Amino acid sequence: MASDLLTARHWIGGAWIDSPNRRNSINPATGEVIGTYADGGPAEASQAIRVARQAFLETDWRETVACAPRRSTKWLTDSRHA
User: Fold this and answer.
1) What whole-number distance in Å separates Cα of residue 78 and Cα of residue 71?
2) Three-state secondary structure call for residue 75
3) Whole-prediction pTM value?
4) Phi and psi dihedrals of 39, rounded to 5?
């Protein structure tokens, strides 16, 4: 049934963004089309890069992400010596 098909879009900058191009999502076990997804191109990529760069430069996101490997390494080191 067409109404049961899944529809996937891009999540960019806190919003669902569609693309003018779409592709079928196919169940590999049955070959059945189970939905469609946005086939992003240069416009969607540029938008995603711009939003990611803005988040990196204007929020504390870069400190949060940069600290994650250090926290994981410290946890592993601490747990080995416990």
Assistant:
1) 10
2) helix
3) 0.62
4) -100, 85
- Of 50, 48, 35, the residue nearest 1 (C-alpha): 35
- Cβ atoms 44, 78 nearer than 8 A: no
Q: Which residues contact 7 (CB under 8 A, 6 or more apart)?
A: 35, 36, 37
C-alpha–C-alpha distance, residues 76 and 69, integer Å:
11
Amino acid identity for residue 17 in this structure: I
Q: How far is CA 14 from CA 4, 23, 60, 79, in A?
A: 26, 23, 17, 37
d(CA 21, CA 65): 32
pLDDT per position as a tens digit, 13-71: 999 999 999 999 999 999 999 999 999 999 999 999 999 999 888 888 767 766 566 66
Tokens of 50: 């711009």
